[in-house]
């Protein structure tokens, strides 16, 4: 029961933070939407800031786990590894689309919690991605490029759909929460990897299983 209450609070907060913004959402708003007493929020999260911090932690624990899983394939080749990281991260974000949208929007705001996230989770992300780019250049799978700038471009591609959901639905008329969009978008990122990063189009090993 307590787990259900906690989950209801988190889901309500994600929904309201997305619609009204963090500052435009009160503890009472969250409690009403979650159909719980406000005291439950204080019990589990202390306050609204604690609730937002919980959302950050939940998201980035899973996010970094997906990157680590992809990075574990590096010995099989840097290009395939980068594709695996891309696939893992994109499916993770699509499966948690509203939490992802909230996190990437909030991460753009300079705050103490954001600086803490950057010093822990995002530094881990940079470590793994730099390792992949450096390995790819060393083995000559990749062109000689700046890893930091490549990370910036890759992160832009991976976060864009979740920062521009309104634009995509109302202007481009695509539904980012649909599975077909996730699959097509991942293929488009693969094209970027092949065309910009790799010296030649990626040729998966014959033993690879899709």
Any overview of this molecule?
Helix content is 75%, strand content 0%. α4 (48-71) packs parallel to α7 (112-138) and α7 (112-138) packs across α8. It has helices at 2-20, 27-34, 38-45, 48-71, 78-95, 97-106, 112-138, 147-163, 165-172, 179-197. The chain has two domains: 1-46, Orthogonal Bundle (Arc Repressor Mutant, subunit A), CATH 1.10.10; 60-197, Tetracycline Repressor, domain 2, CATH 1.10.357. With 210 residues, it is an all-alpha fold.
Strand and helix map with partners:
Layout: H1 2-20, H2 27-34, H3 38-45, H4 48-71, H5 78-95, H6 97-106, H7 112-138, H8 147-163, H9 165-172, H10 179-197
Architecture of the largest domain in CATH?
Orthogonal Bundle
Counting DSSP E segments of at least 2 residues, the number of strands comes to 0
C-alpha Rg (nearest Å)? 19 Å
Alpha plus pi helix count: 10
- Poorly predicted sequence stretches spanning 5 or more consecutive residues: 206-210
Looking at the structure, the CATH topology of the largest domain is: Tetracycline Repressor, domain 2
Structural class category: mainly alpha
Task: Provide the number of structural domains.
Answer: 2
Question: What form results from the Cα inertia axes?
Answer: elongated
CATH class category name of the largest domain = Mainly Alpha
How much of the polypeptide forms β-strand, as a percent range?
Answer: under 5%
**Major sheet description:** none
First-to-last CA distance? 39 Å
Query: How much is the average pLDDT?
Result: 90
